[in-house]
């Protein structure tokens, strides 16, 4: 098994001839959101991918094996729901409403100018149809948003914090008198 332990987002800085010669691996989102997984590349090599915890792999990224070989990642088509404004009766605002409601449910969501994409869920499909949106199933690559607190470039290398989730870091932030600690930009400290 060939060990892979480095990720180059979008192959940044690599020469086109190097990328053209690289092997490829097509992976669905369920695999690409993990930092540790096994895969088989286009040359038949078994890969053991061991990236830093919290990493996710996007279509177009390049994996680097310990022997220096490069593997271009393709987002494999998978079952998705495509949500669009209903022809003749819907508006683009309906998509914004849908994104709001789906975000409140922490649904992984790919945003496009004219549609939303999410993993199939019949309950969510019914809710979206009630809002007045068109929902259809398809096989397509899925690249959900990485979230407001993810690292630049669409790659997450840590974990974000959101309301309603208790995180015990095992350290004190020096807060007294019942003041709640707020995480996010400008909170005054880094998170591993």
UniProtKB/TrEMBL annotation:
Lineage: Bacteria, Pseudomonadati, Pseudomonadota, Betaproteobacteria, Burkholderiales
Summary of the function given for this chain in its UniProt record: Involved in urease metallocenter assembly. Binds nickel. Probably functions as a nickel donor during metallocenter assembly.
Family of this protein: Belongs to the UreE family.
UniProt-listed GO biological process terms: protein folding; protein-containing complex assembly; urea metabolic process
Residue intervals of the UreE urease accessory N-terminal domain: 7-71
InterPro entries reported for this sequence: UreE, UreE_C_dom, UreE_N, UreE_N_sf
Annotated SMART domains: UreE_N
Compartments (UniProt record): Cytoplasm
Annotated spans, Disordered: 146-192
Keyword check for Chaperone: yes
CC per GO annotation: cytoplasm
Protein name in the entry: Urease accessory protein UreE
Record flagged with keyword Hydrolase: no
A Pfam family hit: UreE_C
GO molecular function ontology, one term from the record: unfolded protein binding
């Amino acid at each position: 098994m060939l060990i892979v332990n480095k990720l180059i987002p979008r192959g940044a800085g690599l020469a086109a001839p190097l990328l053209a010669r690289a092997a490829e691996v097509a992976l669905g989102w369920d695999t690409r959101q993990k930092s540790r997984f096994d895969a088989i590349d286009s040359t038949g090599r078994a890969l053991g991918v061991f990236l830093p915890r919290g990493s996710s792999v996007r279509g177009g990224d390049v994996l680097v094996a310990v022997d220096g070989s490069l593997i271009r990642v393709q987002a494999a088509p998978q079952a998705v729901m495509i949500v669009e404004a209903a022809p003749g009766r819907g508006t683009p605002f309906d998509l914004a409403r849908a994104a709001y409601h789906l975000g409140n449910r922490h649904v992984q969501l790919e945003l496009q100018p004219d549609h939303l994409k999410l993993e199939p869920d019949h309950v969510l499909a019914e809710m979206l149809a009630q809002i007045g949106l068109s929902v259809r199933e398809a096989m397509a690559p899925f690249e959900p948003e990485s979230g407001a607190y993810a690292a630049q470039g669409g790659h997450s290398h840590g974990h974000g914090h959101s309301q309603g989730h208790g995180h015990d870091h095992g350290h004190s932030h020096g807060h007294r008198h019942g003041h709640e600690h707020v995480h996010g930009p400008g909170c005054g400290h880094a998170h591993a």
